[in-house]
């Protein structure tokens, strides 16, 4: 069985609190096995109850007293979880290929992060809530240097922190609007005697509060505050009944996979979408000029939709041609999961993006930006907290670990193995699966039939994956995911497709 | 000297790291002095350098390499700061009456919070970033019960967490929109076969994405993401060049202080504003119906503008009469600073608000809500992180301390003393000061002349206060602020007004 090879293993077990993990280290010899960091221990998932189990259901009853629980899958026992394994409230041990919606770069309870959490320099920022916009911590410049700036995308030497991905994008849009108005007017601020500009903006009226827009793509998701939501076009229940900014929306290429087998028709589809982008920019110039374009390197919630590097290079050129800001949303694609720290590094851009937004595996939200879109006057961008700087200590250590353990390489290699394994399964289950695709460990496959049932049945067999778009399964494992973990996941997917009518 | 009485004191000093604090405990006898919790130690501020000092300026130079520093006042040494005293990067010891823009209920480095920060149950949530929207922590229901629900406003049994105040308000508005549409249509969702509703909302178009509005007040501040910013009407530089939702804006009463001396003219002014609110609701019913009204109990950034309890009772009745949601933004007024946990508890409402939003001294953002505005289908409100549940452990301990140390009473008593002291100063400096006002420790006074200069000169004398609106000084001290701290602040304000031309 290609999916769960049972030979050449060294068996042992280790204990986390009072839960015994029966673990297997992959590798062909005892020595190789020993050389693996403890955090890549492999074990077979153990599911004892339906998920959600009785304990999770009881807890849902408690939450129901103060909150709608309809989005809750189950409850986690974070204390007992470790690395790639999430333990739920019913003591089920689950191989987690979703990692808190892609928020955990190193899996659960990384030993070194645990040490960082108790450090005085982190605790100072946890206990004392800085209003960073005005009263910054004296260690902040050094900390940013050792964390955020170490992984700054090429060409973007500025960075600002925010509380979450939605705030990151909202503020990136604000930066685009500020830059656009400065650029078009030729100077930073209207003269002080221009009362109309200053008084109208306070009342949300032109000219101070201009009609401007962000161009986004069908299938994109950029957050759920109302402006971010106006650039989000995935599930209707996220958007129904919500007022929105009426901003231009372009089609995102609908490509055929594997990409290398459909190059010419995919190129045509991408050209069609790029033409619409240009048309929209022109069309909206009278109505609400496009100040920026926002795009995900891979549409991470809207169906794991890929586009070619060439598409993004051309899109960047369109932004330059029309002098609009180019905003790349790397909230989900960032932090090495595609094999590079930032997914847009794959593109080979001649001119870097103007803004790159982040959150999730970065522990904190925010965005990198170039000097062009920097603001020059006070109070233009900011809020009281500017996110939580304590998290930068976790990021700093994570960057060190990713480098030391060569986890970008692991994402690339294990990711290739995951995509190849999905393709193998696609060959076996050719009516049920199609469209296997991935960049590094950022992988997906489409299901013909009930995708939700497949996700649910996999969970019941101890493997947690996510849904993406209408019919895709997404994998967002940690960066310490190994080929043997891939084998386990593929084995369970194989089991589901073999034994369950979907 | 009423402002800094020098008699009956017990002198001692204690040491934080390597900085010696020369402290004075207030009280008329040795025994009374000893009985004070250590955290109310009083000391004279010590300013050795101009603020920002050379070290702060050097650090600003470092930050300037990656971020605009125009909003930065100075850098803080959080490790050395204690209780009501903020130590800056240049070792200046500052009496902090602003507390990180009102974000610190117990001052710096509260001993009990330090212990909580290192607890395993907090660390589990710090190291393992839960995607609370789907995979909640098994200890979350209990933790919410012991923290957020212990201080739930009367009538609001539901609560949801968010990352910051802007997200709290954005999501409160979303809840209002959801409720409004459900209420007007008579059921939760359009039927599944109503393709137009579901497909139009994804493209930001009616009918799925309806024209609806939130009514806000001139002088209000509700956050800086774009929808929250559309309800914010304070400083033009926050809003200039930003597109906004065109939503109705009502005047907020401009009252004369002291309120008790101007009751009848203030009542007329409030009646005028309430009439405009009703007119706007009617007027906008065709254009973009008002789904909710959002208001601060005291306009906390826009000038510390108060309104009477009667105004808010009538405003609440208007919301009921027109069947729109009543959203009270307690981001800055919450957490005992007005003498009650929530400022709106002073109003004596017959019907509680529908939604109360919070952040700042609550450590986490979010909002309380009643069953009416709860949503019934999944995916309507939420995001990946839903704020940072680790912070709820800090809130839990804070609630215990506020109760044990009777800090609501302290806020009331010390606050009364602060307002009275401001009024005394107003009598002495009758051309420079006017409009002393406060509720508990939430206090302000207006400056005739350069308010910014007064704030700056006070800081240079070791007392940090904030600006509010065009000409007010605001006090947002911790809940452990004492009358003797008031004396120090008043002494420095007196010095400034006596010796500096403003």
Automatic annotation (TrEMBL), chains A, B:
InterPro entries associated with the record: Aminotrans_3, PyrdxlP-dep_Trfase, PyrdxlP-dep_Trfase_major, PyrdxlP-dep_Trfase_small
Protein's UniProt keywords contain Transferase: yes
Alphabetic keyword roster: Aminotransferase, Pyridoxal phosphate, Transferase
EC identifiers of the protein: 2.6.1.19
UniProt-listed GO biological process terms: gamma-aminobutyric acid catabolic process
Span of the signal peptide: none
Gene3D superfamilies assigned to the protein according to its UniProt record, in alphabetical order: Aspartate Aminotransferase, domain 1 (3.90.1150.10), Type I PLP-dependent aspartate aminotransferase-like (Major domain) (3.40.640.10)
One Pfam family here: Aminotran_3
Molecular-function GO term, any one: 4-aminobutyrate:2-oxoglutarate transaminase activity
Cellular compartments per GO CC: mitochondrion
PANTHER family tied to this protein: 4-AMINOBUTYRATE AMINOTRANSFERASE, MITOCHONDRIAL, AMINOTRANSFERASE
Similarity comment: family membership: Belongs to the class-III pyridoxal-phosphate-dependent aminotransferase family.
The protein's name: 4-aminobutyrate--2-oxoglutarate transaminase
Organism: Ciona intestinalis (Transparent sea squirt)
